[in-house]
């Protein structure tokens, strides 16, 4: 697995074939929560040119709202959207994959790149529903991509080259960090880093409740808790030290932190978090077969 953090995206480095110096033409098929997260993150980072982005939705009012909010093109016509796109980003629900692939499949060409962020849906599932050797890359981003602190894992399908993987990395790097992973790990990654923000929002809320319990104003408690989580994550990434060593640095003998740790262990925090990832990862593998 290789890891990259914010680097040069398309905006700075040039990018997809035929896109020119200001980035690829991107069609986002399914501009819901995650599609909009990516579009907003790209535009804020200057990673894509809004004039080259088209987003689709099932409902015309959603497509119009997304177009207005982001200053891009919006439509409910998936086939029209993929025509002329360099990158076709699939961002519908896993259960809608069949329908959308049947609709756009024969409009796709091998010069285009399909990037799917659908949980549970494998590259071979997509390839089997396309008429030709269209390159497919599977990616699993998360919602902090909206603020440039995202984590995306990428894996290549059987017609995707190293250049296609690099092209996909250039798309996600401006939104945070990216790793290239083996496809067999994608459900695990979904359970950890795609579901993870929800788990950590609960942790932040609970830490803040603790602060409120010992007398802090709510707003201040939330800020302290959130920045503390951000800082702890940054320490792990920037120092490349094991979290246990960093924890030991905070834990003075007979100090207050070790008393807090005792409570966390009593409450089963570790085993609870481990089981949360196991459950989420198992469920991630099932979504495509839901009705
Ligand atoms: N949410 C996350 O944190 C997250 C993280 C990583 C990956 N993902 C993946 O991202 C995908 C989307 O998740 P989401 O949370 O963004 O779901 P969502 O908010 O429900 O968005 C799905 C979007 O797809 C649109 N859509 C439905 N049928 C369509 C069709 N036939 N053609 C074009 N658009 C269609 C919907 O349009 P309308 O709004 O008009 O109904 C909606 O905007 C999922 O596959 C999920 O696994 C999500």
Given helix and strand content, the structural type is alpha/beta
Q: Ions, cofactors, ligands: which are bound?
A: NADP nicotinamide-adenine-dinucleotide phosphate
For the sheet with most strands, the description reads:
9 strands, mixed
| SS element count, helices | 13
Q: State the low-pLDDT regions, or none.
A: 11-20
The CATH class of the largest domain: Alpha Beta
Strand content: 5-15%
Radius of gyration: 21 Å
Describe the overall structure.
With 291 residues, the chain is α/β, with parallel strands linked by helices. It has 2 domains: 2-186, NAD(P)-binding Rossmann-like Domain (Rossmann fold, 3-Layer(aba) Sandwich); 196-287, ProC C-terminal domain-like fold, CATH 1.10.3730.10. It is 49% helix and 13% strand. The chain is built from 13 helices and 9 strands. The protein has a 9-stranded mixed β-sheet with strand order 1-9-8-7-6-5-2-3-4. α8 (186-194) packs across α13 (269-284) and α9 (196-213) packs across α10 (218-239). The two termini are 34 Å apart. The site of NADP nicotinamide-adenine-dinucleotide phosphate has 28 residues, from α2 and α5.
């Amino acid at each position: 697995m290789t890891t990259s953090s914010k680097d040069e995206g398309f905006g700075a480095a040039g990018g997809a074939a035929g896109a020119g110096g200001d980035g690829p033409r991107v069609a986002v098929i399914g501009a819901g929560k995650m599609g909009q997260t990516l579009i907003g993150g790209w535009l804020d980072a200057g990673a894509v040119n809004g004039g080259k982005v088209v987003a689709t939705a099932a409902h015309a009012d959603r497509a119009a709202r997304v177009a207005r909010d982001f200053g891009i093109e919006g439509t409910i016509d998936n086939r029209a959207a993929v025509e002329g796109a360099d990158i076709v980003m699939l961002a519908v629900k896993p259960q809608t994959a069949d329908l959308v692939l049947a609709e756009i499949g024969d409009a796709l060409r091998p010069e285009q790149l399909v990037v799917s962020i659908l949980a549970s849906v494998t590259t071979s599932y997509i390839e089997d529903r396309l008429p030709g050797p269209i390159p497919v890359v599977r990616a699993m981003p998360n919602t902090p991509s909206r603020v440039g602190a995202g984590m995306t894992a990428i894996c290549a399908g059987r017609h995707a080259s190293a250049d296609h993987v690099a092209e996909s990395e250039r798309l996600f790097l401006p939104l945070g960090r990216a790793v290239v992973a083996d496809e067999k790990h994608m459900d695990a990654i979904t359970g950890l880093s795609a579901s993870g923000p929800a788990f950590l929002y609960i942790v932040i809320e609970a830490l803040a409740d603790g602060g409120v319990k010992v007398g802090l104003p709510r707003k201040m408690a939330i800020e302290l808790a959130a920045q503390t989580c951000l800082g702890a994550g940054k320490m792990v990434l920037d120092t490349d030290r094991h979290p246990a060593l960093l924890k030991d640095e905070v834990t003075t003998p007979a100090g207050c932190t070790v008393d807090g740790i005792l409570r966390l262990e009593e409450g089963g925090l570790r085993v609870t978090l481990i089981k949360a990832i196991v459950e989420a990862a198992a469920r991630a593998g099932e979504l495509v077969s839901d009705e």
